[in-house]
Description:
The chain has 173 residues and is α+β, with helices and mostly antiparallel strands. It has helices at residues 75-87, 141-149, 156-170, and strands spanning 3-8, 13-21, 24-32, 36-40, 42-43, 46-54, 59-63, 66-68, 89-100, 111-121, 134-140. The strands form 3 sheets. It has a 4-stranded mixed β-sheet with strand order 8-4-10-9, with helices on both faces. The radius of gyration is 18 Å and the shape is globular.
Amino acid sequence: MKEKRVFRGAVFDVIQKDVCIKDMVVNRDVVISPGGVGVLVIKDGNILFVQQMRHTINEVTLEIPAGKLEIGEEPSVTGLRELNEEAGLTCERLIPISHFAPTPGYSNEKIWIFEAINVSPALERHEMDEDEEIELVWMPLENAYQQVLEGKIIDGKTIIAIQYAMIKKKEGI
């Protein structure tokens, strides 16, 4: 089947490819993304968020610390890097929670979510990306869950992380 790159960007590429559906060849636009990683941090019953303006949707969002996978990088390495860059934190280990495809209808992107275990301040903090302007927000888990129910937290990876944390709390894990 035919495939043609129509856009090469700093964060993603777009290709047009022919696919076979019901014995017909149809053309699809596909966003090619390296993927991303989010890290759930809970300390003393509070969840850590990164608050930032997301110009793509013209809204300020609350999200778990997260970032883009570098090509060939293991998701856990990305998670540790982003935890350090965005929050100045490190952890004993990362436990995988889930991975998912947020928009499989037009993108190959996958996002991995980890839980940070035994979080502590990083001895050496890495520089944030130059285009990042974030504020750290700690919030009780129950309040975060309520904001999900009220539609105030809208980021998919963050919603999954909060729901995971609530299930874990309710089950006493």
